[in-house]
Q: What sequence folds into this?
């Protein structure tokens, strides 16, 4: 996530990824949201993107996967459903 947050760099340099119908997807991701960009709105030093969701997919089980979570300035992970 830090690599994709940097400005002025090749976001996908040294990142393992594959092509999906709507663009690149990270290898090893636990979920995908395929979208089509509908509109963009300037918001200071950011741009707000409005997209139409075409498809949502997720791995069958998180037992062999680990989702990255960033909340309140810290990284964490989701635990399996038996830990909820």
A:
């Amino acid at each position: 996530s830090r690599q994709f947050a940097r400005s002025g760099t090749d976001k996908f340099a040294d990142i393992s990824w594959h092509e999906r119908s709507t663009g690149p997807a990270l290898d090893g991701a636990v979920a995908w949201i395929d979208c089509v960009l509908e509109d963009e709105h300037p918001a200071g030093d950011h741009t707000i993107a409005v997209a139409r969701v075409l498809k949502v997919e997720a791995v069958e089980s998180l037992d062999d996967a680990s989702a990255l979570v960033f909340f309140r300035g810290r990284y964490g992970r989701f635990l399996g459903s038996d830990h909820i």
